[in-house]
Amino acid sequence: MEEEKRECEFPRCSNGAIFGFPDEPGISRLCETHKEPDMVLAQLCQFPRCTNPALYSFADEPTLARFCDEHKSDDMVVTITSSSSSSNEVSPPAPAPVSVDTKNKKNQPSEASLELAYEYFEMKPEFESLDHIEKESSEHQKKLDNLRSVVRRDVSDIHKISKGIDKLEIDLKSQEGKWINLGTRSPLGMGILMKDNDKVEKWQKEKQEKTEVVQVLDGQKKDHESALEQVSQEQERLNGLVETRKALEARIQELRSACLEEEASGDLRRLQSRVVDHKRMHVSLHQCLVDVRHAHAMFSKALHIQAQAARSNAVAGGANVGQIATRNGGRGIGESPGERLMQIRRNKKTKESILIAKDACDRLNTAQHRLPNEIRVAYPDEMNGVGNVEIPDLWHGSFFRDFLAGQAGGNVGDAINQVRAMRKIRKNMQELEKIIAVCNSQETKMDSVEKKISFACGVLREEVHTQEKELLEYVIAVATSQKSETEKK
């Protein structure tokens, strides 16, 4: 069975992979140097009924083990880079869960990458300590908003009650020196006058109650404002920590990008370039697909207007039949105004439909010209038939021709002209239906290609992410190892 991974999956290792996990028979993952303790020999000799490990490969497949030492041919080469064994077993080395060879200069990261890793080590503790700061800041902001709402409500209540107190003061002031006539005659012949003490006492009591409420609310407002000030200060501190974390995160991303730029292999750069190309193709194809759909809608609108022209022509024909039934000769525009108006409307609709169809065709062909040629090369079968659309010469009516036909042949001439116009309109509709069918086909094909490009782009991004992660982990592992050795010294 041919293995899925031909080279060791350990970062920056080009040895042949001959060991795999027990639950993945036949799939090689790591080489002899970097294998894990629970791994087993995955690639066996391909000679029938031979269970010896496969150690030799063909010259054109140096990383894919095929046969053992006993069954190899003369033109084969050793697959693994470690010392070969002529025995039937490969003696495994001591287990090494994390193997970082700091003495092997070939696979060592550059000094610039290690400096970036050291800077990352310095920022990592502070960055990790701020993991939950955004969540904490968001929750604290809700508390701050609630306190602001409470303070606004206190101010509103105090203002509302204070307005009531002001009104009571005005009412009490209006009662000063005011007497009421009880309507009873005094011995002097005048009514008995006295003050309305009940109303005054009621207002004074109400004023006292509202004043006490205002005092209580004012005290609550001061407490809430004090709490609001403390919470605001705490929120400012949290916001500062959030900005600090964002700055650290941005710097870590810069370190990551710089490290990848420094250490990226040719394969990784090719993958990154392919991701960029696929994104560009996806954007271009999507925009072209949008234009094709718009053109499709415009062609459908042109077909609908042609149908309206056909109905106008039918109405004109009905008017002409009425002229024949009344034995009117039909000569002269004034003798058949309804028929002439429908003919004018028919001609206007056909011209409008043709203009819309031409605009749609121009939009469609312009979109096709903007489509990158790489898409056609990468997906030749799917993109077959996706191209320019040509519109044949569509018929449109002429009022003077219709008028002259009516003048020359009367109602019979009009009837012949309308039959001819209906035939031309139906031909126009058939041509538009063919173009709409072509648009449908192109939409289907381009939509399929768009989905394939999107899927391929996702796969490439995942592969790039995996390789970048492994590369960064390797650089960090080497930097950690060197840092530990330095501390020991």
Automatic annotation (TrEMBL):
SMART domains: EsV_1_7. Pfam families: EsV_1_7_cys. It comes from the Eukaryota. Residues 81-110 are annotated as: Disordered. Residues 214-265 form a coiled coil. Residues 82-91 have a biased composition (Low complexity). InterPro entries: EsV_1_7_cys. Keywords: Coiled coil. This is Uncharacterized protein.
